[in-house]
Model the fold of this input.
Amino acid sequence: MNMPDPQAFATTWMNQFTDPSAWQGWLNLPAAGGMQAAAANPLAGVFKDFNVTIAPAKLDTLRQDYLQKAGRLWQDFIVGKTPQLQDKRFSSSEWTATPFAAITAASYLLNSEFMVALADAVEAGPRERQKIRFTVQQMVDAMSPANFLATNPEAQAKLIESKGESLTRGLQNMLEDLRKGRISQTDESAFEVGKNVGTSAGQVVYENDLFQLIQYSPATPTVRARPLLMIPPCINKFYILDLQPENSLVRYVVEQGNTVFMVSWRNPDKSMANLSWDDYVERGAIEAIRVTREISNQDKIHVFGFCVGGTIAASALAVLAARDQQPAASLSLLTTLLDFSDTGVLEVFIDEDQVARREASLAKGGIMPGRDLATTFSALRPNDLVWNYVQQNYLKGKVPPAFDLLYWNADSTNLPGPMFCWYLRNTYLENKLRVPGQLTVCGVPVDLGRIEAPVFVYGSKEDHIVPWPAAFASMNLLNPKKPKANRFVLGASGHIAGVINPASKGKRSYWVNDKLNEKKGRKGPLSPDEWFAGAQENKGSWWPEWARFLQENGGEEVPAPTAFGNAQYQPTEPAPGRYVKARAD
Done:
């Protein structure tokens, strides 16, 4: 490979910033300059779309900072000093083996830092700034030299080492993914639902056109009288809670002496195109509560909700409270939003225009494809969930290793259009669920404060889908007159990895605060910061904390059930049932 002359290379690039006319052409955000400015500045179109500018003084400060760092970088390059690449994408030795590869990566990192700084410097409101930052970060991540064969020395080395086979395999991998309509994140041939994931023993004891209800086999001779009903999110399949025996939350709570029931949502097809949020609450959660109570012969049961499943579960209990029914012995909410004031980075996808477009196409009937939902969530972490696999699968021709969680992640579910649109507008966009009486669900006004049950709320510290302070906000809505009935536990890691943290492995940590339930000296609940300031960190999994909560509210010990269902609700097929096996694609 012919190396470019370092001095000429550096001079050409630096002239973009030392020549005032070139600089202004690059940074005329694009009030002046039109298409020429947009071509010179990759951010021009973004800033034009949002109609934002940057204060001249701030712009000049960013320019000077960039010039200083770029000058030092190019001086080091000219004298042969290898730059430090503090980014895992460039951690391989190939990136520093040649000056050209090293300067390519270092220049990219510097330019990325500058582009993000420009995005952060725009004069705009918080929502607009977040959207601009998200858009720019997507561009920055896509521009990485690691994503292209011509600038990825690891892929080039693999190409030479394999005598071209890596490129052939990479093209085959890409064509296969194009056929599937998604990027492969794991070896999907290694898993089968019911065979080596979703394997906890049990039987389907009830079904309608919306869900199947699974009752799991007991693992102890006695159980607590009050059973546990688990309501997972309908935007994913339930077996995230029952992956393999060593990381199954279902298996764990069964082994703790609980009779466990699971809602397995049906993967919607065209026959379900008109289902609403009310259907998921009434014919889903409320029906599951009714059947679980009848099978267990208990007036009160534990109700569990994970993510959107928690929003559905709390809505169902609020509807029942409006009907003067209190069937919950306890309510457990894992990474759940009830107050949608802080929806994290997902906020970039929620505004009046975007919701209105969805309503125009889906609100009167239709299916929201699971593939579209999966793409949205992948966009939240593009380096981990998109570009990493482009590099490994396509550029290097590798087959991704088998990983149960990523197999589940690729097993998408559709959503009925009317249900999806109602959920977007009334929760994410207008945040009505938190306001007593603001929403009517299943024909009654809902008030979360009317739910009478001890509450266990869990949040994950690094959750980018449900920020933990947003999960904590449920503490202010539930049991408003009895705050001591609420318990909050904060776990390490993210939305999924924080929840699926087996107690047997003793990994990560969690935080609890048993000293404070109210602000000292004045009424009102704690803020998240106040709670965390007094919290104690504990090593290991938070699962035992939840198990103790269930035990405290589970009633007396009774002999474990010896049969599934009852005379009215007979088992029809083994767990995990057929609904969970239907694929969206």
Notes: The chain has 21 helices and 17 strands.
